[in-house]
Amino acid sequence: MQSNEQYYVPSGSYWPMVGSVGMAALLGGFASSLHDNHLGTGIMVLGLGIILFMVFGWMGQVVQESEAGHYNLQVDKSFRIGMGWFIFSEVMFFAAFFGALFYAREFSVPWLNGEGNNFWTGELLWPEFKAAWPLVEMPDPQLYPSPDGLIHAWGIPAINTMLLLASGATLTWAHWALLNNKRDQLIYGMIATIVLGVIFIGFQVAEYGEAYGHLNLKMTSGVYGSTFFMLTGFHGFHVVLGTIMLVVILMRVIRGHFDADNHFGFEAVAWYWHFVDVVWLGLFIYVYWLV
Amino acid sequence: MIKIVVLGFFLFILYSLGSALYYMMNDGAGSQRMMKALAMRIGASIALFGFMMFAFWMGWIQPDGRF
Q1: Which residues of A touch B32 (CB under 8 A)?
Q2: Are A149 and A215 in contact (CB under 8 A)?
Q3: Which of residues 155-194 of A touch B (CB under 8 A)?
Q4: CATH number of the domain at A72-289, please?
Q5: A263, B30: Cβ pair inside 8 Å?
Q6: A4-8, A172-176, A281-285: the lowest-pLDDT one
Q7: Which family does it belong to (chain A) (predicted)?
Q8: Beta carbons of A267 and B31 less than 8 Å apart
Q9: Considering the entire predicted model, what is its pTM?
């Protein structure tokens, strides 16, 4: 009987159904657009709109239920476990892209040059090719045009590193304020973190403009270009997502949500932001610097 | 040598971040240990960036991979 009282059973909800319809429309529309179906893109955009509607509505309902005091410790634990699995998937996601970069740099490109037991690979395929990273001189320039230049570590990447590190510090300042019930400091810290995140995104857009507009460094610039844009692009997408999450948390803080003993939403978003910051540090070292 | 120092810093940063995750998962609401682990994480990250700038200024490393 005791266990029944502790077990939280949510009331019926139509949000999973709305989400399923949105996912079906998004993926079905995307598949149709690949087959040049003129309705495909429209259905895809509609699906995305339905998913955003679902996220906004469902999350809003969860916030309302939380503020109404419907959640007990068991629900709190379930949120933490859910966050743990989400983080696990994120770590695997970035590990795959870092792994692809590592494999290309350390193995496949040197093999094309005949390293290891691949002497005849280099000799027969592209005898003139000299392996180097960044891979600027392609084995076959006809297939993959070479970029005219690279993004140097001591330009925008270093500035962006400082911005994200500063944002980690302001967020920690806000976190400390929350634990000590200093709401004004919490709000200022959150605002500073969001502003730094937005400036980071602006610089990243400028960097991509420079790469595409002036350096001829593109997704199609061989394995260097594709790994560079996959890693930095998905990281930038995560910063955008993290910034949106921080804005939502800031709104909740301004409305008076959270206190020193009840703020899992803040903790989850703060950890996510620190994670995105560490991924950037890894990118700065391994993509921009250690090239 | 510089690579080893950078790697050491980075492993410590990952350890701090991982500890914060562990505390978030297990301590429940308002974990002081989580906040301290994240503070350590940001401190170590700033120190690593500072070290890299110093190493560059000293001419120990160049941003083209010549460690």
Answers
A1: 179
A2: yes
A3: 161-162, 165, 168-169, 172, 175-176, 179
A4: 1.20.120.80
A5: yes
A6: A4-8
A7: Belongs to the cytochrome c oxidase subunit 3 family.
A8: yes
A9: 0.90
